Amino acid sequence: MLTGIFAGIAWALETVILGIALGMSPLVSTEQAIFLAPFIGTFLHDTFSSIFMFIYNAVKGNLKNVFGVLKTKSFKWLVLASCIGGPVGMTGYVLAVNNMGASVGAVASAVYPAIGTVLSYVFLKEKVKWYQWISLVLTLLGVYGLSYSPSVNIENFWLGLLGTFMCAFGWGIEAVILAKCLKNPEIKNEYALTVRQTTSALIYAIIIIPALNGWKFTLSLFDSDTGMLFPTIAVAALCATVSYLFYYKTIAKVGAAKAMALNITYTAWAIVFTVIILRDYSVLNPLTIICAVVVVICGIFAATDVKTLFAKRKKD
User: Fold this and answer.
1) Which of 131, 166, 185, 246 is the most exposed place for a label (fewest CB within 10 A)?
2) Of residues 283 and 75, which shows the higher confidence score?
3) Chain-centre distance for alpha carbon 32
């Protein structure tokens, strides 16, 4: 449970820092730059994260084991999870935000635990108590309250709706597949994350950015004065890498459904970092605070089998 909460905290920090990077001048200089910014930002983000994971595994002397994953039967499933969770899920998120507004996009990113929990219950036979279902629903309602805005500008509802489904199913299915793969003793969470981030970065580089005619602009960033853009994205990627390591470990320990319930608390922790880093005190209103408390508490209850917890304490 602690690793799941830490995953949410690290992802919240990553979200705020990446948001700062995407608002820097090279990525908001033209209409093309604004359109490509989320895709290029994600590509650079996952590339940095992949590099960090290779360094991490090299320091621990695990590079041989990482490449050994390629020979396992679960490798193809890891690649599938990477394709679904990275490019499909993240591209869907971008579509939702660009076409339905930021608040609805944020809701879309928070729907995936519900999808993942149902899939975990159906395919992985993970036991989910009645109060955990209720807690999960309350968590999602809390997230909706955090991201609600009465002035949502919906430019293209159907394209945004498509993005919402891509995001929810992409991230939800990824967690379920990963839970299955991580049961293989040959695949540790750090090996799986290395495959995930590398696969995602390659798909963006080979398929998504070329399809958007974005390579010319992407390469121009390396020839111009981008200031703190790359270091900022690198720091965001480092936070994301830490978050994913905790998240994958949580999936391996307590299952996909409970891990997602804990991870979704990032929406509440993001408020804390928004105040501390951005000095934006507008988020400190009664509705936001109440919803943040609901998300954190209900997220924890959604991930906790109370009966098992008390039985263990009694035994201890």
Assistant:
1) 185
2) 75
3) 25
pTM of the model as a whole? 0.80
Task: Report the distance separating Cα 108 and Cα 96, nearest Å.
Answer: 7
**Going along the chain, which residue ranges are E strands?**
none
Q: How many CA atoms does the CB half-sphere of 196 hold within 13 Å?
A: 31
Distance CA 120, CA 126 (A): 6
- The secondary element (H helix, E strand) that includes residue 240 is helix 229-254
- Report the C-alpha gap between 237 and 248 in whole angstroms: 16
- Residue-wise pLDDT for 114-159, tens only, equals 777 777 777 767 677 788 788 878 877 877 776 665 544 556 767 7
User: Tens of pLDDT along 229-288?
Assistant: 899 999 999 999 999 899 888 888 888 777 877 887 777 787 788 788 878 777 677 877
Q: Supply angle C-alpha 118, 120, 126, rounded to 5.
A: 115
Distance CA 180, CA 189 (A): 12
> DSSP letter at 69?
G
| Separation of CA 214 from chain center | 24
**Using CA atoms, how far apart are residues 177 and 251, in angstroms rounded to an integer?**
10
Q: How many angstroms separate the Cα of 12 from the Cα of each of 15, 46, 74, 96? A: 5, 16, 30, 19
Structural contact between residues 40 and 27, judged by C-beta atoms closer than 8 angstroms = yes
Q: How far is CA 9 from the centre of its chain?
A: 12
